[in-house]
Amino acid sequence: MIIEIPGRNTLEIQHIIFDYNGTIALDGKVIEGVAEKIQALSDRIDFHVITADTYGTAEKELEGVPCQVINLSKSNEFKTKTDYLAFLGKEHCLSVGNGFNDKALLKQSILGIALIQDEGVCTETLMSSDIVCKSIMDVFSFIEKPNRLKATLRV
């Protein structure tokens, strides 16, 4: 997905990294409509979910959903979300999160989106983001209608 932002750099987004709880899930359960959106958009972009899996449900909840799930509590290769971001290449990643442990991920990604949903958002994470959204569905809308990103980020 290539997006030319007037007055700014062109974004070449190949990957979207989601936090799990507070971002695409609430209380350990995937938010209604998320799996369907990932399925519908997976031919355009690669989806990744990075989680410490507080509720122990991420892998089961995302079974059959076309995304890579990285469970940091089980991973030997990746210890932090930014380790995985570096592996993918931060210059090609849009990242989405809400918690304190998402702060560096959003700051280092080519585009970081903070979400204010039912769990709220850590203030430091909010200040480390490029965009703030009120719903995960808003993030999917950016993929479906990239001109919304242009309107938000243009100089």
TrEMBL record:
InterPro entries: HAD-like_sf, HAD_sf
Gene3D superfamilies linked to this entry: HAD superfamily/HAD-like (3.40.50.1000)
Domain of life: Bacteria
Name of the featured protein: ATPase P
Lineage: Bacteria, Pseudomonadati, Pseudomonadota, Gammaproteobacteria, Thiotrichales
